[in-house]
């Protein structure tokens, strides 16, 4: 069983301006409860979502508390060790794309982690097929649409085969084709036993793809439950300043 556990985490960018307040939550695979399900973290801007995932990736350090990956504090791990275990897809693909061709970009992370040539070819072929990138492998990513560049970053992270994948707003600027590809990827990652976590504002995509939902507000976790219970709680959704998915609204009208 693989586990990612957050214990009593607090963080401030400046003194007297705490962004996260004593947050505790766990994610794992192979269990019978909801902690093993693909998880969406939702909340308004400023709720602490992005700060939380930066802490999970080891990009910033907490003021207090611990983040444990399989009972080992990530603060004791090197950048390379964290990269092997935890992959993150940034909201803006331009912050993540460095190479001049799509194929080189897909290979980049694996080469840095020491994958052998055969495994690199195998993984590139797999993700290129999964995200319909075979026809653009020789193209410069910056000659392609923003939605395609976002898929390239997802494919690049998946190619590195991390145990945990974190998405930051994967549906922003994404077209219908891209959203379908993302849905397929999330399902596949879950079936492979990966821990899948995503920050999202797209409540329709949340409801369709993430059985577990964590609601954050003002640096705290308001709720951690199934999507059905979360979106059925009108008081909770109102307090968090969120929208109810259309499917939930229609279901309530039919009752």
TrEMBL record:
The species is Pseudolactococcus insecticola
InterPro entries recorded = AAA+_ATPase, ABC_transporter-like_ATP-bd, ABC_transpr_CbiO/EcfA_su, ECF_ABC_transporter_ATP-bd, P-loop_NTPase
Superkingdom of the organism of origin? Bacteria
Q: Name one Pfam family in it.
A: ABC_tran
Give the Gene Ontology MF terms in alphabetical order: ATP binding; ATP hydrolysis activity; ATPase-coupled transmembrane transporter activity
- Annotated ranges, domain ABC transporter: 4-243
* Family as reported in the entry's similarity comment: Belongs to the ABC transporter superfamily.
Lipid bilayer topology: Peripheral membrane protein
The membrane-spanning stretches of this chain are none
- Tell me if Membrane is a UniProt keyword of this record: yes
Gene Ontology cellular-component terms for this entry are: ATP-binding cassette (ABC) transporter complex
Please state what the protein is called.
Answer: ABC transporter ATP-binding protein
Q: Which UniProt keywords apply?
A: ATP-binding, Cell membrane, Membrane, Nucleotide-binding, Translocase, Transport
CDD domains referenced in this protein's UniProt entry, alphabetically: ABC_cobalt_CbiO_domain1 (cd03225)
In terms of PANTHER family, this protein maps to: HEAVY METAL TRANSPORTER
Cellular localisation: Cell membrane
